[in-house]
Amino acid sequence: MKRSTYKAAAVAATTVALVAALAACAPAGNEPAAAPSGGGADAPAAAAPAETPEADSFGVVVADSWKDIYPNQYQTYKANEANSPQGKQNYLTEYPELVTMYAGYGFAKGYDEAASHAYTLQSVSETPRVNENTLANCLTCKTPQYTAMVNSEGDAAYQKPFAEVLMEMTEPISCYNCHENDPSKVVVTQRHFADALGADADAVSVNAETCGQCHNEYYFYPETKATTNPYVGLEAMTAEAMLDYYDAMDFKDWEHTETGAPMLKAQHPEFETIYGGAQSSMAKQGYSCADCHMAPAVAEDGTEYSSHNLVNPTEDPAIMEKCEGCHADLSSQIVAWQKETTDREHELAAKLEAYIKELAAQRESLDADTLAEAQQVHRHAQFYWDFVMVENSEGAHNPGLAQDNLDKCEDELKAGYALLNMAY
């Protein structure tokens, strides 16, 4: 899943926190977890059910089986269906340069704004980016049934044919992904992400890690095809460190058909943008994803719970009222951050496209060393740009970091333009 913007009525695909300078606010502790692994304030968990419903053949208790035991959570979870694929933004139209930037890769064929968790299986089944050679690893974070399969079978599950495994899957992202089969706990079920946290697993709330296990940058390890993160620990969760990691192993997602550069495609690095490296302001204060995307709610009978309708925080009064003591008009500030980021994305996309076309034109006339240097500029500049554009907040999760990565993109391009004797 890719960026689901704050311009939409609900940002269900983006369960990561609105990380900005919410300076003096205190975490409200509305997260639905039992025991945090560190970081934010965590509310008491839901009581364990007297009896766990029967699991399916994959060992997953599907969402519908919990509806009578946790009716409030279930009803708000189902509300995510309002954030459907209909009317979603086409990024190839919004950023026409992407056809050139992704030439030779599936994203040049189709790239739409993400819908909610309720549509993960539908979206992956309909994308033009899959073909007869696609492997089942593309189902990572699309269904809890595949997560359970991987946890049971290991790396062999990643190597199965996509189409074959997809036919077995029926449950989109749901309860198991975050709770396994025990709603009284919050669990990182994606074991590759748990490994990637390393010794820092206790440095961040498990509630944030549970969202981050799917909202992160990953790649498929060449030998095993396993879904893998390009880092271990929080300090290594920066775009620059990831480039070093990928460069050291000579990894590429594809070879660009026009420039011949070995390219990288960033995924959706929300967790890294918030918690990686120097971290965002809100992360440092102990906030986690639920503070901004899962509103505190009260049922008709007075029961307090966390809404499982994952929303745009600026459009939910129950979330925004927590910010009013420190921010006179946070919504306007967010709009300003997003405009600054997207305006610059468009400006640099045009510069990238021009560079790609010029490099393609000069490719045959450049000596081997100059060509390799120019191709690396393409690889690095585009990764820095992609890292910001595909992160699901348009810069709002960490405005300073978004600009820093766009600065790095621009620095690379200036060096590339000089190398090819282009006027910047």
Automatic annotation (TrEMBL):
Entries under Pfam families matching the protein: Cytochrom_C552
Matches recorded under Gene3D superfamilies: Butyryl-CoA Dehydrogenase, subunit A, domain 3 (1.20.140.10), Flavocytochrome C3, Chain A (1.10.1130.10)
Protein location: Cell envelope
Enzyme Commission number(s): 1.7.2.2
Reactions mediated catalytically: 6 Fe(III)-[cytochrome c] + NH4(+) + 2 H2O = 6 Fe(II)-[cytochrome c] + nitrite + 8 H(+)
Record's signal peptide: 1-28
InterPro entries: Cyt_c552, Multihaem_cyt_sf
Superkingdom field: Bacteria
Chief site of localization: other
Assigned keywords, A-Z: Calcium, Heme, Iron, Metal-binding, Oxidoreductase, Signal
CDD domains: NrfA-like
UniProt cross-references to PANTHER family, sorted A to Z: CYTOCHROME C-552, CYTOCHROME C-552 RESPIRATORY NITRITE REDUCTASE
Family label: Belongs to the cytochrome c-552 family.
Name of the protein this chain belongs to: nitrite reductase (cytochrome; ammonia-forming)
